[in-house]
């Protein structure tokens, strides 16, 4: 298992230089480290911010499980999407509303073919809302299939 969380993780995170805004560190409520967030008031509607996790050493023809926490807090705050490597065409996961301000955990299976996934991108799209934020935290990559809850 590889801990890619932001405060103490070992992973290589990069802000996309070609997007509209950056993700920023935000302090956790419990005061232990931080998560990455995009406040609702940043940018204009439909603007994008991409945070990329660069992956090395993933073995071809094997499975991995990406586990992360996220929250969409605020009305019409926007969308959060996850893209794998160069499959820019369609996100492997997308969420656009939070029922409440709670953090939720998501798991995504990553199957490696002959070409390995060399990055995972978290993309935030700005919505109409003016309050709240989109947040991502506790990103972990484990080898094998995603565990059942």
From TrEMBL:
PROSITE patterns reported in the protein's UniProt record: MAM_2 (PS50060)
Protein's UniProt name: EGFL6 protein
Gene3D superfamilies assigned to the protein according to its UniProt record, in alphabetical order: 2.60.120.200
Domain MAM: start-end pairs: 2-148
Short name of one Pfam family: MAM
Cellular component terms (Gene Ontology): membrane
Natural source organism: Onychorhynchus coronatus
